[in-house]
Amino acid sequence: MPSNPMLPLSSRRLGTLISLVSRQWRKAVDARLQAFGLSEATWLPLLRLAQAGRPMRQKDLAAVLTLDTSSVVRILANLDAAGLIEQHPDEEDRRAKAIAITAAGRALVRQVESVSQGIEDEVLAGITQTDLAISRHVLEQVCGQLLTMNESDRKS
Question: In the chain, how many domains are there?
Answer without folding.
Answer: 2
